[in-house]
Amino acid sequence: MTLRVYVVAGEPSGDALGARLLRALREGGPVEAAGVGGELMAGEGVASLFPQAETAVMGLFEVLPRARRLLRRMDETVADILRFRPDAVVTIDSGGFNKGLAKRLIAAGCPAARIHYVAPMVWVWAPRRARRMTQLFDHLMTLWPFEPALFEREGLASTFVGHSLVEARAGDGAAFRARHAIAPETTLLAVLPGSRAGEVRRLLPVFRETLERLSADLPGLHLAVPTVGTVAGRVRDAVAAWPWPATVTLGEEEKQDALAASRAALGASGTVALELALAEVPQVTAYRLNPATALIGR
């Protein structure tokens, strides 16, 4: 019997998890999949209902100008799910979009199991969010082993499935340097400005200013700039105008190899901070919100 699953991954990190999930499911039997995702899920046969970049937005004043489009995309996704008639709908992270989607699926009487992948960090802030998840989802898949208990005590069945970064292969720094003609003695610095357009727009000028301050002490500096398809064009255009040679890459293996080859890194706050820590790369982590969003946050 073929399992029909609809996967919604609103950001590149979710795209990686969605692709990993589909590969694992296919080890157990035939799977027919549809949904919203990026280049990695496309490699697993999912033609995204709309471009993933449209939902890769974070911050109050970042979301507001796109609110009408995001609501329309939610409605289109619900309609597509009802047409596809899956056994399960798996939503990955992207809480704002996916909680709204779950509410709409409940209102539409969709019989598919609603499964959320990546628990909200209720141990850091807003414990009441665990209770809200119980009202929206049938099951939760968590990245960390201590998380299921936090949600099960609120009545939400949960399963620890592990973190894909912990299972990722170690990068090959020597291979990266050889592939991109970077000499072993060259100082290589990784620059990772994020996967959302707003992040990249706000952080790249900060990272450039930082590099300008460092460049006198780092002659011959070369930059490794792993990025993702949603922002690749913007990143390439920006670093092309910088005074340092830069190698811009796409793909998970290229990223891991770039990190292994790098002496240090400038990175956007987020999943990449864990990746850099696991790769044992010294890092400076930064984030800059829309000024209005930051003011409310304070």
Q: Tell me what portion of residues adopts beta-strand conformation.
A: 15-25%
Coarse morphology: elongated
The number of distinct helices, counting runs of at least 4 residues, comes to 14
The major beta sheet can be summarized as:
6 strands, parallel
> Which CATH class of the largest domain?
Alpha Beta
Distance between the termini: 53 Å
Q: Could you give the order of strands across the largest sheet? A: 2-1-3-4-5-6
Coarse structural class: alpha/beta
Q: Short description, anyone?
A:
By secondary structure, the protein is an alpha/beta fold. Helix content is 44%, strand content 18%.
Q: Which descriptors would you attach to this protein?
A:
single chain, 298 residues, alpha/beta, Rossmann fold, 2 domains, six-stranded parallel sheet, five-stranded parallel sheet, 14 helices, 18% strand
How would you explain this protein's 3D organization?
With 298 residues, the chain is of the alpha/beta class. The chain folds into two domains: 3-118, Rossmann fold, CATH 3.40.50.2000; 173-293, Rossmann fold (3-Layer(aba) Sandwich), CATH 3.40.50. 44% of the residues lie in helices and 18% in strands. It has 14 helices and eleven strands. Strand 10 (264-268), helix 13 and strand 11 (283-286) form a beta-alpha-beta unit. Helix 4 (67-84) crosses helix 5 and helix 9 (173-179) packs across helix 12.
What is the strand and helix layout of this fold?
Elements: E1 3-9, H1 12-26, E2 31-36, H2 39-42, H3 60-63, H4 67-84, E3 88-92, H5 95-107, E4 113-117, H6 129-136, E5 139-142, H7 147-152, E6 158-160, H8 164-167, H9 173-179, E7 188-192, H10 197-214, E8 222-227, H11 232-240, E9 246-250, H12 252-261, E10 264-268, H13 271-278, E11 283-286, H14 291-297
Parallel strand pairs: 1-2, 1-3, 3-4, 4-5, 5-6, 7-8, 7-10, 8-9, 10-11
